[in-house]
Model the fold of this input.
Amino acid sequence: MNAAYKIIWNKCKECGFLQHKTHLRCLKCKGDKFESIAASGTCKLLTYTILKATPMEFRDQQSYALGVVEFENGLKALGQLTTKENLKTGIILKPIYKKICNDLNGTEVYSYIFKPLE
Ligand SMILES: [Zn+2]
Done:
């Protein structure tokens, strides 16, 4: 995984609960001390959908798949999938950091996209 653009979550130092880093307090115990945990390894597809009305930034694509994945260490992430074919929950994917589109000002947008291992 690209070291400069890791997917980072917070792990509560009180109770160990993992949560997105936008929360200021632990959702479980209300603690406010965290350590940063980076997503690692491969991930599992938890759920997905096929978008058929794509946002303007993706106007060159008629449709694409969007999924929620869970990494081996418990972190979850939302992102595009590289394919719409043969998807089912539970398959293993690998994160790839790449340009996903140009925004409406023409600026390149980079993010993780998830590719099935098989
Ligand atoms: Zn906690």
The chain has two domains: 3-38, 43-116. Residues 69 and 77 are 5 Å apart (CA to CA).
